[in-house]
Amino acid sequence: MNILITGGSGFIGSHLTKHYLKNGHSVTVIDNFITGNKNNLKEIINNKSLRLIEVDLVDYNYKDLSSFDIVFDLASPASPAVFKKLSFEIFKVNSIGLINLLDFFVKSKSKTFVFASTSEVYGDPKVNPQPETYYGNVHTTGPRSSYDEGKRFAEAVIAAYISKHNIDARIARIFNTYGPYMNKEDGRFISNFINQAINNQPLTIYGDGSQTRSSCYISDMVEALAALGEKNNLKGEIINIGNPDERKVVDVANLTKQMTGSNSQISFLPIEEDDPKKRCPDITKAKKLLGWEPKIKLEEGLKTTINYFKNL
Ligand code: UDP
After folding, report:
1. Which of 20, 62, 122, 147 is labelled catalytic?
2. Is 103 a member of any domain?
3. Which residue has the CA at smallest separation from atom 16 of ligand 1?
4. Per the structure, how many domains does the chain have?
5. CA of 144 to the centre of ligand 1 (A)
6. Residue range of the domain that includes 29
7. Which of 113, 308, 305 is nearest to 216 (CA)?
């Protein structure tokens, strides 16, 4: 197959790129490296089946590209640590960038479009776990609004293209994901805790750590995204992808300390406004439509991720 992956040098994108190259497909990656990292593609950079285009989706003209079997759109900064700093980049790539890409998709008669949306569309949810039918509780002007509303707008754009151009587009609502090749500086809780623990620095918990997250290991995420791109009869489907093993942030901090054998203290810092108090995917739909469920337990995935960061 001929695959296009925007954001293909990011954490999830680089794993997806390697997955398709390993399975003998041709992959075109478009990335401007705003939060992605060329180093993530180091081991495949000379692969003849990889084409890397360094450009911003917002002003790319797609002139030298033809039809793709699957287009995965993963291009967007995604860490809460940059939601304010990169707010306009987030708005633009999820609006202008997405519309440019969809226009190319229609014109080139490409087959399947998979959009990386997010659990952030549920905001600070009043329903737990969150099914796809939940409309969310988002603060439209809060500190997370660039990403939350950017992705909600993007979902609306995709719905309009499906209705107007009859394209086969599918939406993945991606929940917290972790594993090797996470950006060390990204500010995510799992990467922060591991790096703080192995460097004997205090583990920073925002708030009292009673907020929950449900973390999916990267290999499970890649499997689900590939299934979403490849299965038949999923046009217009919106599917949560994540691991429903819900844990308190403080428990993940203590588990990381224990697994790294670290003597680090825990330091409680102020929590940012609108930080979701609970987050857990209802994956009934993913199980049914993708025949998928996560296999890697948190303890197992943390072990691999800790080793990765230790060897950096
Ligand atoms: N968090 C934390 N310490 C950190 C980084 C994050 O306590 O060093 C908390 C954060 O406030 C949130 C949760 O961990 O409640 C997950 O944060 P992350 O940035 O990984 O992603 P989010 O799920 O908020 O998008």
Report:
1. 147
2. yes
3. 189
4. 1
5. 12
6. 2-178+216-244+280-295
7. 305
* Rounded CA separation 189/252 (Å): 9
Domain annotation covers residue 50: yes
Q: What is the pLDDT along the chain (312 residues), one digit of tens a residue?
A: 999 999 999 999 999 999 999 999 999 999 999 999 999 999 999 999 999 999 999 999 999 999 999 999 999 999 999 999 999 999 999 999 999 999 999 999 999 999 999 999 999 999 999 999 999 999 999 999 999 999 999 999 999 999 999 999 999 999 999 999 999 999 999 999 999 999 999 999 999 999 999 999 999 999 999 999 999 999 999 999 999 999 999 999 999 999 999 999 999 999 999 999 999 999 999 999 999 999 999 999 999 999 999 999
**Could you tell me the CATH number of the domain that includes residue 10?**
3.40.50.720
For residue 129, whether the previous peptide bond is cis, meaning omega lies within 30 degrees of 0, is: yes
Assess whether 147 carries a catalytic annotation.
yes
- Burial of residue 156, with CB atoms counted within 10 A of its CB: 0-12 exposed, 13-18 middle, 19 or more buried: exposed
Consecutive H or E run containing 217: strand 216-217
Q: Is residue 171 part of a domain?
A: yes
Specify if 140 maps to a domain. Answer: yes
Mutate to test the pocket of ligand 1, among 189, 268, 271, 275 (most ligand atoms within 8 A of CB): 189
The predicted model scores a pTM of 0.98
Cβ of residue 105 lying under 6 Å from some atom of ligand 1: no
Structure tokens at 268: 């409680």
